Amino acid sequence: MTEFLGPGEPSPYLYDLVREYPSRAGKGVRPALLLATCQAFGRPSDEALGAAVALEMLHNAFLIHDDVEDQSALRRGNPTLHELHGIGLAVNAGDSLAHLAMQPLVGDRALSTRLKERLVAELLMVVRQTTEGQALDLGWRRDSVVDLDPAAYLTMAGKKTCWYSTVAPLRMGAIIGSSGTAQLHALSRFGFFLGVAFQIRDDLLDLKGGSGSGKEPFGDLREGKPTLMLIHLLATAAGDDRRWLVDYLHAAPSGSSSEGACRVHDLMVRYGSLTYARDFAAAMEVEAHRAFGKAFSTVGDSEHLGFLRGMIPYMLARQS
Amino acid sequence: MTEFLGPGEPSPYLYDLVREYPSRAGKGVRPALLLATCQAFGRPSDEALGAAVALEMLHNAFLIHDDVEDQSALRRGNPTLHELHGIGLAVNAGDSLAHLAMQPLVGDRALSTRLKERLVAELLMVVRQTTEGQALDLGWRRDSVVDLDPAAYLTMAGKKTCWYSTVAPLRMGAIIGSSGTAQLHALSRFGFFLGVAFQIRDDLLDLKGGSGSGKEPFGDLREGKPTLMLIHLLATAAGDDRRWLVDYLHAAPSGSSSEGACRVHDLMVRYGSLTYARDFAAAMEVEAHRAFGKAFSTVGDSEHLGFLRGMIPYMLARQS
Question: Using CA atoms, how far apart are residues A241 and B298, in angstroms rounded to an integer?
């Protein structure tokens, strides 16, 4: 990735910004999934390196714009890019990085033109799905939509999180590893269950706060983010509790306070929203294990398949 | 373009926004240049239609983010997208449109895979150049850089305006029209002179204000935009005039007022900055005419070539 984010001018107004998030330590879950899937389907990982780098760069570009759109203050334990450089330069750096992300793929010499065409189409689909999911998330918050159900949540999370975090890495890895012959539907299904479970755990983790997450404590509650816990709470809280909650969400994020966020959290504990979300994520994890078998039914056992199987507990048990 | 921006969900939070700017009347200068160049090089315009649509969509995506980055209030006579829907949804819609813009090109059946690869590389180069130019523009403003010279201005305008407005339409049209055999350097040169002259005239037009431009009166002066006139004024204004101007720019855009903008304008008149910029644009126009001959020296005369020649006075004399 460093190679594609190498020196360039203007450095202080653009490429230093473009390199900022990639230089902060991340877990690299997406490239790991992509490379291992390629290997599980029988091709060496270096053939998938361009695609893996492209997806990781696109991920970092999303983070820059997400932080602007969510008005987040912290990312990976440090101030967000727009906090450091202003909204204008941050948005521009995100645009730059999103398009630089295509470079490792379109310039890849390890892949045939036919495979590259398919992979570019996958990357464009990732952006389409992610922007649709982000639009739902932002739109619901802006309009303080308070009558969402779990199905709506799954649609949003599927688009906003699963496509670029799990579905696309699996699909792109399989396309390369199988030279375009793999059936992708079962892989998408596995990716969806894994991604949803991952997102719910991530949202639960945000409620624990602490310095481990690298974000503000209770950031999601202050932003009024439509998590599964919040959707559950809105559906189950009664009387004054629900009235107060609706008012709180109408005022968020500008009018939200730490006290308000704490009260939402207390309500979530009291109404069983956290337990509900934990159970929901556990059910998704069971489905992910089931879907895993089908997704990789055509490939033989290997250390790479073992690694992928191990990604399920790794991604869902993580503490930061 | 309408076909690629057709119905889709979520409509109120994404695709309605994506369609907003394209639905406002524009002049279509970029696709006109691209299609006519293709025809001048000998291929029918329908072969270049996908590329022309892609570039026009990318242009509209840039406008969305530009307006956020410049904190502009009006675009084509109506409120900007972020004024209508907030910064978050507007940034997200720009991301969506920028990637949808690749679709008419990568899905184009009129072009060979080899030509498509070259055209995708051209589009990615457009984004690279445009984000670099935008970074200079924004960075100079943020840091109130007051010692710029015309060479710095040409670098910035070349990247920010010329690449996507003139250089890329000419290059992409020629690539398609010549099936990849055209020499592109002379076309880039012509595009650069045409684009710079166009940008300077556009900046001069902004100072005339009025409802014709579809933007706020004196918007550039209030934003502290580094135009050729401002760079000239900073280099020539003396004593109290320059001290006041520097203070004004340090306060812009948040601290700028109509009175302040009027005073900058008066100074520009008094120090000959407007005349300087008009002369500069006229010189660029002369160079554009000269470069035009070389750029199209290998193609025979045709109505399309005549149309392209006519684009020089058309683009540079426009009143809105």
Answer: 77
> What pLDDT, on the 0 to 100 scale, is given for residue B213?
60
Spell out which residues of chain A touch residue B89, defining contact as CB-CB under 8 Å.
Answer: 69, 135, 138-139, 142
Instruction: Measure the CA–CA gap between A199 and A214, rounded to whole angstroms.
Output: 16
Give the pLDDT confidence score for residue A232 in this predicted structure: 97
φ/ψ (deg, to 5) at B78:
-130, 165
Query: Using CB atoms within 10 A of its CB, is residue A301 exposed (0-12), middle (13-18) or buried (19+)?
Result: exposed
Give the per-residue pLDDT at B127: 97
Of A138, A186, A160, residue with least CA distance to A59 = A160
Residue given tokens 């900073």 in the structure block: B234
| Minimal-distance CA residue of chain A relative to B69 | A88
CA distance B96 to B94: 5
What was the ipTM of the complex prediction? 0.94
Q: What ranges do the domains of chain B cover? A: 9-317
Q: What residue ranges of chain B have pLDDT lower than 50?
A: 211, 319-320
User: What's the CATH superfamily of A14-317?
Assistant: Farnesyl Diphosphate Synthase (1.10.600.10)
CATH architecture for the domain at B9-317 = Orthogonal Bundle (1.10)
Chain A residue whose CA is closest to B160: A92
Asked if residues A191 and A162 have their Cβ atoms less than 8 Å apart, the reply is: yes
CB neighbours (10 Å) of residue A240?
8
Cβ of B131 within 8 Å of Cβ of A70? The answer is no
The number of residues in chain B equals 320
CA dihedral A39, A40, A43, A46 (to 10 degrees): -10
What whole-number distance in Å separates Cα of residue B1 and Cα of residue A197?
A: 38
